[in-house]
Amino acid sequence: MARPFAEQTQRAVDQEVARLLREAEATASSLLRDHRAALDRLVAALKEHETIDGAALGPIVGERDGAAVSPS
């Protein structure tokens, strides 16, 4: 089946997709590291209660007035 674009274009698209995926992975890893303490508190609360509603989630992860508190 013939492609409607050149191999060079496909290579450029593949490289950009790979770059975007690497960037997204780095961002996700950074967010998980930066908010590890909140994640650990959430895990402990879920182990104890199995479910948590939105009202209980904010204090667990350190939110105040709808905004997350920056990690120390």
TrEMBL record:
Domain Peptidase M41 span(s) in chain numbering: 3-56
Gene3D superfamilies: Peptidase M41
Coiled coil region boundaries: none
Pfam families tied to this protein: Peptidase_M41 (PF01434)
Signal peptide coordinates: none
Protein's UniProt name: Peptidase M41 domain-containing protein
